[in-house]
Amino acid sequence: MEIDAVRGPLSAAEKKRRMDNRLCLYCAASGHFANQCPARPKNTKPHNSAGSSGSPENSTPQD
Ligand SMILES: [Zn+2]
After folding, report:
1. What is d(CA 41, CA 18) in angstroms, rounded to the nearest whole number?
2. Which protein residues have a CB closer than 5 Å to ligand 1 (ion)?
3. Any transmembrane segments, and where (predicted)?
């Protein structure tokens, strides 16, 4: 598996190269940008809001 270089911080040169080529800054693919990257996890909602609007799934004990 060679995934070590994929998620690392981009160098300035690599970042510029991707922007020049209109490549995704996240996965370096063309056709989309990092904010629409399909390889990016979409669940960006914080999970630590304890009962703000009353979700029934929030009161499930895990032990
Ligand atoms: Zn991408």
Report:
1. 20
2. 24, 26-27, 29, 37
3. none
CA distances from 5 to 13, 18, 33 (A): 15, 15, 19
pLDDT by position in tens, the chain (length 63): 555 545 668 899 999 999 999 999 999 999 999 999 999 887 766 766 555 555 556 666 777
21 and 30 in contact (C-beta within 8 Å)?
yes
Q: Would the pTM of this model clear 0.90, i.e. be above it?
A: no
Dist. CA 44 → ligand 1 center (Å): 16
